[in-house]
Write a structure and sequence with these properties.
Layout: H1 7-25, H2 32-38, H3 43-49, H4 53-77, H5 84-95, H6 100-115, H7 120-146, H8 156-176, H9 181-195
Helix pairs in contact: 1-2, 1-4, 1-6, 2-3, 4-5, 4-7, 5-7, 5-9, 7-8, 8-9
Length: 198
Amino acid sequence: MPRIVDREERRRSSADAVFRVIGREGMDAVSLRDVAAEADLSMGSIQHYFSTKDEMLLFALNHMRARVITRFEAKLARMKNPSKRQYLRTMLNMLLPTDDESRQEATVNISFFASSVNNEQFRELLRQGYAGLLVAIELQLQAAADAGELREGMDSKTEAAQIFYTAQGLIGPVLLGVTTPRRAVALLDAHLDRIFRD
């Protein structure tokens, strides 16, 4: 009996192959042929799942977002009734390249960011992602403010923007070794200490 191929699973594994190629050689090296070889597929197979390189890259970018969300949800599930601060801290730490998986995702994200200068589809997907993260942080801080967990005088919208852009700004320095993941996490913790009550 022929083996049934799960189309979406094959597309996800191809997206993971895209990430490995980008991580080793950069975005310019990505081609349908290179990804087929990396995923151990024939060229015909990869073309069956993606008709163009851009279609493959857009799928990979969406897959990366789904991968991060799945990891975030798994971390939350291991926590018993996380506080709003713990929830927010976990979310922010997911943005930082602190292990092999998140380092790969950060490297891929920066590659897409650089390519988005000349690609409106990449730009729009990244804009949506950033906007969604910022709103999620704002909502969490607003809920904390409503519960009396923030220090006096804290504006949740302003604080959300500051901490989100701080986290984004730490990604490059961590990847380059200018600072360590531990130091980056400590800087975000210091920001949370400033806005949350003891």
